[in-house]
Amino acid sequence: MTAARVDGAAVGGAGSGHGLGAARAVCARLLAAYGPQHWWPAESRFEIIVGAVLIQRTSWRNAEQALARLRAAGALALAPMAALDREALAGLVRPAGFYRQKAARLGAISAWLVAQGGCEGLDGLDDAALRAAWLAQPGIGPETADAIALYAYDRPVFVVDAYARRLLARLGLAAGDEPYETLRAALESALDAGSDYYNEFHALIVAHGKARCGVRPRCDGCVLAGDCAHARAPR
Ligand code: SF4
Question: What pLDDT was estimated at residue 180?
Fold first, then answer.
């Protein structure tokens, strides 16, 4: 396998010769296979933010259960959540796991957003300032900050989650263990796309990860098998 180096980390081309630019063809094939994903599945911007916190270290199924309990309790909106007692909030988000920690994060984020004038209060920030503002919140790391920037604020960001790392590494387009910022910057530089594109691509990567390219990949019949280093590797 040929591999280029980007910022000291292996980010290369599985013989494609196009480096991460080949990710565009990956996106097109996934779109043809799975169709538009219509992400993020939420009724409001605040719900996206809450979902991005609840999904940390758990499955979407568990996060959804917590969201449903919040919705049923009338707490899936900024003002009601900010006013909610921390114990009551912890009880509602329990299905998402790490519920005391997540309740503390959601309580702090809600209070902060109220002080900003609501989710819309951050609209005037440029991409870098918005990202920095979210990264300064408790429990918000790069992946969550980028998911919020992309899906709640429509900013052009490639979200580097575990599905993306695994897929890119198996395809031979990345080493997979690059620092978060290295891989994100390399992908955004190679793709140079808008938020709609990153929105769809990330959702498709997750769909493909769930359907085929999970921890144990199911390569037979995969639409990416022809260009996949993992599928071609001798067993
Ligand atoms: S061929 Fe296998 S390893 Fe490669 S992308 Fe498809 S499922 Fe993943």
Answer: 97
Q: What is the pLDDT of residue 15?
A: 36
Q: Return d(Cα 126, Cα 90) in angstroms, integer.
A: 33
Cite the beta strand spans of the chain per DSSP E.
5-6, 9-10
Contact of 81 with 75, CB cutoff 8 Å: yes
Q: d(Cα 151, Cα 153) in Å, to the nearest integer?
A: 6
pLDDT of residue 20: 86
Residues 198 and 159 sit within 8 Å (Cβ to Cβ):
yes
Atom of ligand 1 nearest to the CA of 212: 7
pLDDT band at 26 (very low <50, low <70, confident <90, very high): very high
What would the pLDDT profile of 178-188 be if each residue is shown by its tens digit?
Answer: 999 999 999 99
The number of residues making up the chain comes to 235
Cβ of 224 closer than 6 Å to ligand 1, yes or no, is yes
**Alpha helices for 74-175 (secondary structure H):** 78-83, 86-92, 99-115, 127-135, 142-151, 162-171
User: Does the beta carbon of 231 sit less than 6 angstroms from any atom of ligand 1?
Assistant: yes
Atom from ligand 1 closest to the CA of residue 217: 7
> Measured between alpha carbons, how far is 137 from 119 in angstroms, rounded to an integer?
14
Query: Does the beta carbon of 212 lie inside 6 Å of ligand 1?
Result: yes
Sketch out the chain's domains with CATH numbers.
5-37+158-232 (1.10.1670.10), 45-151 (1.10.340.30)
| pTM to 2 decimal places | 0.91
Phi/psi at 163 (nearest 5 deg)?
Answer: -60, -45
Q: φ and ψ at 15, to 5 degrees?
A: 80, 0
